[in-house]
Amino acid sequence: GEIVEQGTYKELAGDLSSAFSRYLAIVEETGVSDEDMVQFAGESDQGPTAAATGRRSSGKEAELLKPQKLMTEELRAGGHVDWKVYKAWFKAAGGLYIPIVVFVVFTAGAGVSVLSNWWLTYWSDNATGKSQNYFLLIYALINLGVAFVSLIRSIFLAVVALTASRALFADMLATVLHAPMSFFDTTPVGRLVNRFSKDIYTIDEQLMQTGEMYLATIFEVIATIAVISGVTPLFILFMIPMIAYYMHEQAFFTVSDGLRRSYCLLDLISDHSFLQCYAFLQISYRELKRLDSTSRSPIYALLGESVDGVAVIRSYNAGETLKTRLANMLDRQQHAYFLVCAAQSWLAVRLELVGTLIITFACLSAVAEQVATGADPVFAGLAGLAISYSMSVTQSLNWSVRMASDMEANMVAVERIQEYTDLQSEGERYTTVDDSLPENWPSRGEIEMKGAKLRYRPGLPLVLKGLDLKIPAGSKVGVVGRT
Fold it and tell me: Which of 162, 164, 156, 142 minimizes the C-alpha distance to 105?
């Protein structure tokens, strides 16, 4: 190469015979100017409301001429996790028959567990009729059945979880690999890493663990209520108000008003006013999980950028600044976890009250039933079984609500992965036109473009406006810049 001309910008731009001046003329002719943006705004506004007044157009022009952000904001859904997300998970796990199999397996497990406890009661009431070895053998066989059902349940759920995770991962990977370049231009790498690491890990391990514990505690609570109600039917009258109170407290713990409250929650968290935030809002554990996921992506992005630009960071002595930014991001993310602990403590107090009431009413119902039926030794054994079940229901109630919240919160990972499996894809790799081409195509390396009009991505003005170009075969062409 060689220096063709030399001078200041003003001198070269003012000399109409200079190469630099001709270059500026080409840029002015083919580049995106303010008039193009105004024209683009007019094209975007065409419709019933386009010709309302000139004031709206001027406001749109001023907005478009401002510097625009390249990176898009990460979306965060609000409210309950949609049933379509659960349906997508079951479909990835193997089909919609999975819930039926899960229900059968957990029902069998709860039934065998109740049978084991009932056999102890029957053994104590009829110990003199047969040998102890007979009762011991039956009890051992029942417990072997409990162990077998538990093993089958765990293996089945593990296989289902890994199948669903593998299918969701494959769908997301295929969609992202076929996404247009505009998606990668506007999406930080940390956001992609978050989906392929934390969200996939949640589906691999945490989702199935919480789901299994939730279903186990729910079936245990149902079995407890069924045993107590079967022994003392009077207990059903006391259960109605307790169930209503339990459902109300669970709804308060898990239900939120959606994005409006979550945005307010995010503002309060950023101001370090988490106690005020908790007192002001009916906090949803699900919304806190969404906040946790969206606040983790910038941390990954900052770490990745810091590793890539470590030489520049050291040369500018900006290490302390980045440490401060990272510490602030971590603090902001940990605020949501603090709120989770506070909400769980709040819930535990109320569920302890429900458990205590169940024990109280079970004892009162047993006493009332004994008075009504007289001194029956068989009923005394069954009443002891019912009261022993009621003693353990408090922990089951507590865990059922927590696991329900954890399970729905972990389903947010499936929701976020579904968002990336629905991305707009590039054009098809193979079309019907490919089949009509000859086998030796292309026979010559000639490229011809006629009236090419291109933009970088939807929503931006044209950067190529009717380009005519012909590159003969065998030519060596250098392209400077994408445009």
Answer: 156
State the pLDDT at residue 144: 93
Cα separation, 332 vs 430, whole angstroms: 47
* Residues present in the chain in total: 483
In terms of Cα–Cα distance, which of 412, 318, 390 is closest to 80?
Answer: 412
3-state secondary structure string across the chain: CCCCCCCCHHHHHHCCCCHHHHHHHHHHHHCCCHHHHHHHHHHHCCCCCCCCCHHHHHHHHHHHCCCCCCCCCCCCCCCCCCHHHHHHHHHHHCCCCHHHHHHHHHHHHHHHHHHHHHHHHHHHHCCCCCCHHHHHHHHHHHHHHHHHHHHHHHHHHHHHHHHHHHHHHHHHHHHHHCCCHHHHHHCCHHHHHHHHHHHHHHHHHHHHHHHHHHHHHHHHHHHHHHHHHHHCCCHHHHHHHHHHHHHHHHHHHHCCCCHHHHHHHHHHHHCCCHHHHHHHCCCCHHHHHHHHHHHHHHHHHHHHHHHHCHHHHHHCCCHHHHHHHHHHHHHHHHHHHHHHHHHHHHHHHHHHHHHHHHHHHHHHHHHHHHHHHCCCHHHHHHHHHHHHHHHCHHHHHHHHHHHHHHHHHHHHHHHHHHHHHCCCCCCCCCCHHHHHCCCCCCCCCCEEEEEEEECCCCCCCCCEEEEEEEECCCCCCCCCCCC
For 97-110, write each residue's pLDDT tens digit: 888 888 899 989 88
Q: Provide the terminal-to-terminal Cα distance of the chain, rounded to the nearest Å.
A: 23
pTM summary value = 0.61
Place of tokens 């927590």: 402
pLDDT digits (tens, 9 = 90+) for 195-246: 888 889 988 888 888 888 888 888 888 888 888 878 777 777 877 887 787 7
